Every structure is written in C-alpha cells, then in structure tokens.
Amino acid sequence: MENKKVHPNWDAFTGIFSIGFGLIYGGMTYAMPRAAFGNPLDPLYFPMGVAVLSVIVGCILLAKSNVKASVQAWVNLINEDETKKFDRKRILYTCMVSIGYALVFDTLGYVISTFMFLFAMLVITSGLSEWKKNALVAATFAVSVFFIFNTLLAISLPPLPFMG
C-alpha cells in the first residue's frame, strides 16, 4: 500500500465561502429596487451574473476539493507558532477597523473617522506605547487632507457632525 500524504489546502472552505457569498449577494441583488423606466430588470443582470458565477465556482471548488486536506489546513492554522498567530490577529484587527471606518465615515465625518482609523492602524502596527506620536500623526494627516481637499481643491469631504 502507498502512503499518500495529504497536502493542506483551503479549497473546500473557499468553495463553501464562495457559495455562501453568491447566495447572499444574489438575494440582496434580487431585493434591489427595479428600474423606473426601460426594462425593470436591467440593473439586476450584471450583479446577478456575479452571484451565479460565484455559486458555480464555489460548487466546482467544493466538488474538486479534498475535505481531509482542508481540515488539515485548519489544524495547521490552529497549531501555528505564536508569531504567525499574532500576525493573523493583526490582519483580523485591520479588517475590523477598516469595516468600522466604512460604517462611521458618513456619520462622524472625514476628520473624526479618519483620525480614529489612522490611530487604530498605527496602534496595530506600532503598539500602544507610542500612542502620543500615533495620535499626533493621525490628527495631522486627517486635518491636513481635509483642509487640502475642502479648501484648496474645492472637493467636499463629509464635514464634522457639528458643522452641518
């Protein structure tokens, strides 16, 4: 008998994610408002095509995947050394901060939301011990860019909430 070594890969998990993404994206696409004139379904064709393609690719990936290899990849991820785990946490924190930035951008305005985003990113990369320098850099950048765009270039950015 041959001893077949399993090479870890993420194909099964990627397929499941792709199918889930396609189904959710397709559902949200179908719930979009219809066009007021012309063919009411015209705005839905492209996004629905993306959703269907995502589901098809996910099904192909899932069919071709080796579930044991994907489970092995997950086990390897869990058993990583502390340096790699710390790096993955920093990636996760970066994603979370970016999503938070997108969610509060219009509500808090450019200056406050960009300051919070940059400060959080600088803390993630350089640590909390440098918080004074991080706050100074984030504030300087946010205010400078706001001034340049609003005043010099006459391009509106979301103002501070109390400026209306």
TrEMBL record:
Q: Write the protein's name.
A: Tripartite tricarboxylate transporter TctB family protein
Chain segments annotated as transmembrane:
12-32, 44-63, 91-124, 136-157
**Cited InterPro entries:** DUF1468
Query: Which keywords describe this protein according to UniProt?
Result: Membrane, Transmembrane, Transmembrane helix
Does Transmembrane appear among the keywords? yes
Indicate yes or no for the key word Membrane.
yes
One Pfam family cited in the UniProt record for this chain: TctB
Coiled-coil ranges per UniProt: none
Name the source organism: Vibrio marinisediminis
- Which stretches make up the DUF1468 domain? 15-158
